[in-house]
Design goal:
Layout (H helix, E strand, L loop, with lengths): L1 E5 L3 H13 L3 E5 L2 H10 L4 E5 L7 H11 L5 E6 L6 H10 L4 E4 L4 H8 L8
Helix pairs in contact: 2-3
């Protein structure tokens, strides 16, 4: 599967990339929702893993935009450490806006891979 990982922290993107590549997924990275949407429109993407709290364009805005422009089934996984909000509050909201699965940071590789592959909806 080709997975687009959107997160403003390079270290988080690197860890998520490593976890997904170890599970034989191809990973493309973007540092914010705006750049992520551009990459999504330019490439064939199967799954998007996005943070919620980001500069430029928040994750909820990104989810809504992805649902509008996706021309085929798309799995969206959201992740959040909560930022100034609590993960338990923001992750269920993201699911209501179109995410298929939600993961509070930190998470295990097995949890991420299960969500990306559609075997779990996360723990939100």
């Amino acid at each position: 599967m080709r997975v687009l990982v959107i997160d403003d922290q390079a270290s988080v993107r690197a860890v998520v990339r490593r976890m997904l590549e170890q599970a034989d997924h191809e990973v493309i990275e973007a540092e914010n929702g705006k750049d992520g949407l551009k990459l999504f429109q330019e490439q064939l993407i199967d799954v998007v893993v996005t943070d919620i709290i980001m500069p430029e364009q928040e994750g909820i805005e990104t989810i809504i935009a992805l649902r509008k422009i996706a021309s085929r089934p798309l799995r969206i996984v959201v992740m959040s450490g909560g930022g100034r909000l609590q993960s338990k509050d923001i992750l269920p909201i993201a699911v209501k806006f179109g995410a298929d699965a939600a993961l509070p940071k930190p998470f295990l590789k097995e949890e991420l891979v299960a969500c990306v592959e559609g075997r779990s909806t996360g723990s939100a």
